[in-house]
Amino acid sequence: MSQDEQYMRRALDLAVLGQGSVSPNPMVGCVIVHQDKVIGEGYHKVYGGPHAEPNAVESVGDPLLLKNATVYVTLEPCSHWGKTPPCADLLIDKKVKRVVIAAVDTNPVVGGKGIKKLQEAGIEVVQGVLEKEALEENRRFFTFLSQKRPYIILKWAQTQDGFVARENFDSKWISNPYSRQLVHKWRSEEDAILVGTLTAKFDNPKLNVREWVGKDPTRIVIDRNLSLEKDLNLFDRSQPTICYNQVQSSSGPNLEHCALQEGFDIEDVLADLHRRNIQSVFVEGGARILNTLISKNLWDEARVFTGPVSFGTGIKAPLIEGLSFQESDIMDDRLRIYRNIKL
Ligand code: AOF
Ligand code: ZN
Question: What are the CMP/dCMP-type deaminase domain coordinates in residue numbering (predicted)?
Answer without folding.
Answer: 2-125
